[in-house]
Every structure is written in C-alpha cells, then in structure tokens.
C-alpha cells in the first residue's frame, strides 16, 4: 500500500473555520470510535480554490450500519451503493464508505449474479418477508475498500484529496495538490479507459473547467475528442440531471459554449448545439447573472425556469389554453426536443403557465380582483422570477412583490382547508340493573313522548 503525501496545515490554506460545524461533529464522532474519516471530494477542492462549497461530503472506513448505530438522525439510502445521510434540520450530510475500483464484470459473472439475485427474490417472496426484499442490493457496487483505493477510483486528481480535521492536514494519493496549484484538470489513470468506463466524466471535465476557470490537461482533451461519441451510451436521466446542474451553476453560458466546442453537445442535444447563437447566449447570460446574486439556488429557480432559459431562444412554446383546445393533455406531443435528454411533461407544462402569465403581469390596467387572482396562481412566484431574469423590468417586479407580500390568503385555501370533525355527544352506558330515565331527567325513556307527538 502506497503512503499518501501528507500536507501539514502550515503548507495549505484550508481552515476548519470554513467547514460546516455539523460536518466537523460527524467527523469527530466517527474518529472517536476509531473509524478513519475525512472531508472528501469537491468540498476540499473548492476550499483550496477559495470557493464556497455547495456540499460537505465525508468518506469513512465505517460501514453504513456502523454509521447508523452512532447517529440517530441517520438514514441509509441507495440500492447499488449504500450511503448514509445524516440530517440536521433541513441540511443533509452524505457519508460514504470508502470503495475500491472493481474490474469490469464478465458475462459469466453477470449471469451468475442475476441468477443469485432472482433466487433470493423468489425465496423472500415465498417466505412473505417484506424486509428481506427491500434489502436486496447489488453487492458488486458495495465493495468497500481503503482510503487509498477510494482515492484511485475517483475521476480527477483535484477531486481525490482528503482533509483530516483532527490533524488539519491533507492526504494526497494522486498529486492532486500539484494540479490544484496549476489549476489543471487531470485524470486519475488513463483518461481513455476512464471515459469508456463512464462517459459522463467527459462532460464533467468540461463543466469543471468552465465553472472553476481551470485548464484541461492535454491528455484529457485528446481523450474527449476521441471518445466523445460514447456519451450517447450514458443514462439519459443522468444527462438531464447534469444539464439542470449546469443551468443552476451560474456559468451556464460558458459551459454550453465549451461543450459545443468540445464536440459533446451535438451528441447530447443536437438541437441545442444548432441553436448556439446570440439569442441563446443572451438568455443564458441573464440566467447566470440572476443565479450569481444568491449563495444557494433560490427555490423559485425550478426546472421549468431553467428549461425555458435554455429552449425559449429556439423553440416555440404554445400557450396552455390553445394547446388544450386542440387535444387532451395526455395525447399532446411535446414540441420541445433535446436529443437524448428526456424532458418531463410537468416541467414543460409549468413553463407554459409561466410564459402565459407574462403578458398579464405586464398589464397595468387590471382590476384589484384580477391582480389578487393572479397572485394566487400556483405559477405566480416562478413567473415573477422569469420576468426578473428575462424581461428586465425591476420596477414592475418590485411592485408585484410588494403586493404579494401583503396579499390576503386565497379563498381557495380556505375551502381546501380540512374541516374539523364535529364530535357527537355520547350517552352514558346504562348497566343491566339501571332504571330507565324518567320524564324529569335529561333523557327520554321508552314511554316519554317527545315534542310534537
């Protein structure tokens, strides 16, 4: 086993003051129970590049169930690889057990694994053991390893640095600190092999370089040009998730431009590649300017707004009522296409509502009642965000926000509020020897006549 290069605190600028306090608590508790635990990945990289990390992910030698025993606020997630999510209020810290690189599976191994998995399923079903069925995982991706093996299975050297909070030192197995100093993206191992293993790594190399203002190692650039067509074999769901991450990054204009230059965009979304023009750069630039005003992505910057910022410059989005008059919602073909990327119908329909509200938000002659009705539309907040990003009318946006702050609750909200169930008064039970209540008592006996009889 190779020993890592240990960089002491005096030789790097990463300070514990910039690390989330809850992340430090988790690190210290795991270390107190003799588990090797570090801050890993993008958190270390961003802090060394003087950037604010989006997440603080941890790596440890503890297995998921061992982590769960130490933290009551821990949930185990994942089928292919079990991860521990430790929740602190609305914040979630991801803790992953060190893994090692597994060689590609042969056809014989895959057939044996699938047969064993099917036998386990049938056995669990026959026994009626629901808990056993939910625990079925693919053990191949749960091959735990050491910190060194975990470092060598990562994609790029700048993402394979480990920070030890107890000694305040950085562990470097792959010369990642050198590449941090050079501001270079370099692959761990042969980039040709790594990109064939996971073609999404090519996209991530371009995204990292654009977002962090880094250069790409020539060997990585050559491998991207050679294997860029392999990106079509990636999961479409992963690719569309990466697209939304790009749109939320605050650097989408440069990233889309660089993906086009690298030749990846024409395989991922040829429509977007053909639409590279001033209209697209203006739309993405406006989106980036808005996103950079916030430390974190605001909740109103949802997928519909992001999708619209990407496709509106080259696609025609029909208004909702016009579409509804033609054919039912479930049978409508989507008029927006992005190559391999699956566009969720709900996101496109939401975008339709957002765009439909724009001319109404700009109408200064609406009655107060009509304005109240618009403010209670479900797409109102996102429509206002769209207007702020793309319409460049700050006074109008401020006016609507001021009105929305003091707006009363919607009448619909009152109607949909669950009614409190009225409880009926129950008569006291009478025992076997109890007398029937007389006419002077509160109840009516069998011979007591009620009013009106």
From TrEMBL:
Segments forming domain tRNA nucleotidyltransferase/poly(A) polymerase RNA and SrmB- binding: 214-274
Compositional bias per record (Gly residues), positions renumbered to this chain: 439-453
Entry-linked Gene3D superfamilies: Beta Polymerase, domain 2, cca-adding enzyme, domain 2
Signal sequence, renumbered to the chain: none
CDD domains: NT_ClassII-CCAase (cd05398)
Protein's name in the database: Putative Poly A polymerase family protein
Keyword terms, alphabetized: Nucleotide-binding, Transferase
Transmembrane region(s): none
Record's compositionally biased regions (Basic residues): 418-430
A GO MF term: poly(A) RNA polymerase activity
Domain (Poly A polymerase head): residue spans on this chain: 37-186
NCBIfam families: pcnB
Region (Disordered): 403-453
BP GO annotations: polyadenylation-dependent RNA catabolic process; RNA processing
